Amino acid sequence: SSITLVFLIRSLAALKYFLSLSIPKYFLPNFLATTAVVPVPKKGSNIASPLLVVANIILCKRASGFWVECIFFRQPEQRGLGDAILCAERAIGGEDFVVSLADDYLIPEGETVVYNLLHAYKKNGQSQLSVMKIDGPEISNYGVVNPKPNSNNIQGIIEKPSFNEAPSNLATLGRYVLTADIFDMLRVSEPGFGGEIQLTDSINKLAQLGNVDMQVFKGERFDCGHVKGYLQANMQTAKNLGIID
Ligand code: G1P
Fold it and tell me: What are the tens digits of pLDDT across the range 38-83?
């Protein structure tokens, strides 16, 4: 079987991370993938075109070594993650798919996050989210799940709730396995948090039908959408590789 990976590149740092570290890890045995790449600069930056050019040249070169086909899309306007995924719909072709937000750099304790999500997905065919515990007001930077008691299933998810309104301390990371019916939700989605078409709002609709599970991430996470996180990710990787003490 094969599954499409939608890779959303939201900063040059994230692109560099993807190119240097993770391509082989994404393409698991039995999951030969097409990759739909959508550069999605964060609001306020305007680097979509250079990102597309750089991604096209370098990514194709690297990916060819792994027999991966890369298809590039452009998001004409910065209308949010949900809209970016709609831009890649033609490459996904009505199948379930994987989403990776490149600016989340994860060093898992065991297998990669995508590997674990795909394992869980293979068991029950449900959409799968990766979440990690975040205690304190930083929870408001993320999509936050409302878990069902004693279960991996979630009953809802809210994009960037205030600290007081957060339904739990479990925040989504930028890794998802999504079932194709998310497109039915995305196509009719109204702008949500920040005036953008939020992926979270459509996942919430699937969750209300009981169709979304979560897997708790164990390991380290770096936000490479910011210079500080990118530098920290490099330092940690260099330490892990024994390049620095
Ligand atoms: C996005 C998602 C959010 C998720 C986060 C993970 O937020 O909208 O639900 O928790 O990625 O990094 P953004 O980074 O665009 O603010």
Answer: 655 555 444 444 555 555 555 555 555 555 566 778 777 888 899 9
Picking from 131, 130, 154, 163, the residue whose alpha carbon sits closest to that of residue 205 is 154
* Cβ 4 vs Cβ 98: under 8 Å: yes
What distance in angstroms lies between residue 192's CA and the mean position of ligand 1's atoms? 13
CB-count exposure of residue 32 (10 Å: 0-12, 13-18, 19+) = middle
The tokens describing 133, both together, are 């515990």
- Give the H/E segment covering residue 213: strand 212-216
* Ligand 1 centroid, distance to 197 Cα (angstroms): 12
Rounded mean pLDDT, 17-23: 50
| CA atoms of 100 and 108, how far apart (whole Å) | 15
Of the residues 42, 81, 145, which should be mutated to test ligand 1's pocket, given the most ligand atoms within 8 Å of the CB? 81
In angstroms, how far is the first alpha carbon of the chain from the final one? 42
Rounded Cα distance, 59 and 36, in Å: 11
> What is the distance in A from the centroid of ligand 1 to the CA of 21?
21
| Closest listed residue to residue 179, CA positions, set 135, 122, 225 | 122
- Tell how far the Cα of 218 is from the centroid of ligand 1, in angstroms: 18
